[in-house]
Amino acid sequence: MRVSILGAGAMGAALTVPYSEKNDVILWGTEYDTAILEKITKGEEHPRIGVKVAAREILYPDELEKALDSDIILIGVSTEGVMGVFRKIEKYVDSQILITIAKGFIEKDEVLTIPEAIWDEREDLRGKIVAVTGPSIAREVAMRLPTHVTYSCTSHETLDVIKNSLETHFYRIETSTDIIGCEVGSALKNVYSIAISWIRGIESRKHVTMNNLKGIIVSMALREISRIVVAKGGKWESVYGFTGIGDLIATFRGGRNGMFGELLGKGYDVKSALRELEEKGVGVIEGYVNASRAYRLAEELDREKKLKLEDLKLLNGINDVLYHDENAEEVIDALF
Hints:
- The protein contains 14 helices and ten strands.
- By secondary structure, the protein is an alpha/beta fold.
- The strands form two sheets. An eight-stranded mixed beta sheet has the order 3-2-1-4-5-8-9-10, sandwiched between helices. A two-stranded antiparallel ribbon has the order 6-7.
């Protein structure tokens, strides 16, 4: 199979490693990836994951059309960039399988998952859109460390092709037709992992261990994520698999959202925390970008009487910290 990965960021580059074991892989970079492309074209390690990419061919921004003659196309950019890239390639997409790896929401007239936003423009692609969720830190994927993720799609046939083509001995694939549940749970996982990581920051600042409190907040997070997933039309079971609890652990322990949450727990304000992570070269903090959309989604579901926003106490607390200048420790105390 011929696989094209659009986006040379950490995860797009990392996926060239497992994908290349069975396939001919092309990596295309956006205009934001130019500096990265120059390094990896010379055979250097990717600057954000410290591993050499495994693509047969590396293409620059003006070579996009060349990258689209493939059986599988993966959009490997952040949530903010997904629809922009999709609209650039839309006229070239016909029978190909289209994979998305961003974990977030798109705002149109309502809050949509990424697959729903694409279906809204191309309903004919419903059975060809595949979403990737689950615990997968990019550097670990690139280093061939054990990874087990979920690929979801409405079509069993498409999922069979994906599993047969992309699964390896270290990159295992579970398949699911609950694409809504997987996508909502995964986007919310990024948001809630920020709050769980507040505790790590508080521990660091106070020189104490607070495992009891971590257990409480994790339980609250999973309960609220399940409520929202079910209200949106997904299955609660997806929240308790790789997509939900599995990815939640990976993210607050080692992901960018966890790093952001830890700084807030240490007493940083939002702007200062984001600035420090930017200076360290950390990529987009998807949980921060999507927290306001998650809150808006909860408001929509509340108006539709599918849940009560007042019951989502942790989500309300996250919204207060990220957008109303509340202190993370004070919000945790109020929740407890």
